[in-house]
Design goal:
Layout: E1 5-9, H1 20-34, E2 38-45, E3 50-54, E4 57-63, H2 70-73, H3 79-88, E5 94-97, H4 100-113, E6 117-120, H5 131-143, E7 146-149, H6 152-161, E8 167-169, E9 190-196, H7 204-217, E10 222-227, E11 243-247, H8 251-256
Parallel strand pairs: 1-2, 1-5, 2-4, 5-6, 6-7, 7-8, 9-10, 10-11
Antiparallel strand pairs: 3-4
Helix pairs in contact: 3-4, 4-5
Amino acid sequence: MKPLSLAFLHAHDLSEVRRGTERLVAELGAGLVAHGHRLTVISAHHGPRETRTRDGVEVILNRRPPAFGPLRRHSLTHVPLSRRTLGRLRGIDVAHAFHPSDALAALGWARRANAPVVFTVPAFPPARPGPLRRRTLLAVFDRVDAVVAPTRAVAGEIRHVFPAARVEVIAPGVDTERFRPGGGRAETPVLFCAADLTEPRKRVDFLVSAFAVARQSIPDAKLVLADPHPGRQLPPWAREPGVEVRPMRGDADLLAA
């Protein structure tokens, strides 16, 4: 296969927060470079603009402008700079977005570049989006050349809500050399949830309420939650009996958990 020149776009970088999508961007990028492709990641952070090299991948971090309300909640303020940065790159064959706002930036670039845009969806589409957000999502799902969903369930929901979307199911990979079963089972039942407990779409609060019911029958059970933003104030339900919150500052913390 001819080597491709690729651009990945995501609202947040692994150096800022370590969640599933940031990890996917970093590890998928490193794998593509190892197979001979050229990759540039375009993201944003709170510091000045800078360019880094990570695992052979060029990472461009634009300064994220201040944001309030919906602009912050939907990660929109970085979009103009991401689109401008993408437009300045030469010879890009495919733009691959990992957030709806970044898909907007890539679509704006694609009109002039006449190149395809891929959008990887990290989760189900929102159940009750507001009018503006629904129009935005409709534009993204209808116009991108391919939508990558992690499961058949997510793909089915996308097709139901956005019938024009061209959806492919590609499960996120797992590095089985690093993530493998340990040396046996714990003496008491222990559950680990790697999802960001501050992200409402992950419904970690619902998991905690279900765990409280299960703990009535198994009082020594333990639930470990992941916090990719150490130092932030935790919600009250994260302090329920049997619940432990562990900071996730890097791979070592995740592997240990």
